[in-house]
């Protein structure tokens, strides 16, 4: 999939380029290849094309000249904007939501997450079918009749509406079962098992940390959403207590609204966790902003009051020696316990294990 990436910059700030770079990583995650960027500084989006009409012509010429077969917009386009752009540019048009939905569709494994992603895709597709029937009807049909295109679109719309209702019912049944299971667990709390969940913005090194803590082989890849299905392993930090450590999907800003619930469905282990390890890429200049994204999602999950240890990873990109770690000021920005580590170099891991032990002891004291 050879693609051009298009962005509308309302501010002209550095954040717009960073968002485009993130879009490029999403494209790479679905096997696409970025041929280049096209940006426009504009105070507000055009209701018809999102970008201005003149920029649409430029996009068409560049796409034809580069051989691009897809044009991806760094936003959430309306159904009419996609339709108008495809007519004007003559290429397939995708937006940020299309890429994220495609990644989730390819990588989810659990039944609940699959249902949620399917629901998101169908919810996203339904409004885009309206108006397409008339285009398809040019294949046949006379005056005053419904052509085959309209008939096909209507059949698809009916099927989607029916399937959406089926999925919602299945999800309600699953939620009811889980509520009952949660009540049983809470009534018989096992103090000898402590659940720890790794969370963080995508691509901060959670899977690498999981492997370092547990020795379990996990998929480690330099791309967003490398792991969408959670994995759990055991580590004995005390002779009589086992710690279940779970790696979760990486967070990301600007998720498609239709995907929010399916994204949360992959994070149920966070709601069940006793302790959260919030992993941060200390070498990322925007780490504080991304911490806010993660905190906002944890709040949506009703998991923002859980005990947290902040794990600043990739410190080897900031300092040359492990001995220089105490001089760093980043941990001072966060309240509570923190540890600075380099999973690649093995730096700071003893301090992290110590912090986990202390949290476990605090948790034990709270239940006694």
Describe the structure.
The chain is an alpha/beta fold and 368 residues long. It has three domains: 2-98, Rossmann fold; 108-170; 190-367, P-loop containing nucleotide triphosphate hydrolases (Rossmann fold, 3-Layer(aba) Sandwich). The protein contains twelve helices and ten strands. The chain has a six-stranded mixed beta sheet, sandwiched between helices. Strands 2-1-3-4 form a four-stranded parallel beta sheet, sandwiched between helices. Strand 1 (2-9), helix 1 and strand 2 (33-41) form a beta-alpha-beta unit. Helix 1 (14-29) runs parallel beside helix 4 (96-107) and helix 5 (111-129) runs antiparallel to helix 7. Mean pLDDT is 83; it is low at 133-145.
In short:
This protein has 368 residues and is of the alpha/beta class. The protein has helices at residues 14-29, 53-66, 79-89, 96-107, 111-129, 132-136, 148-187, 206-214, 260-265, 268-272, 287-300, 349-367; strands at 2-9, 33-41, 70-73, 92-95, 193-200, 231-238, 241-247, 275-281, 308-313, 338-340.
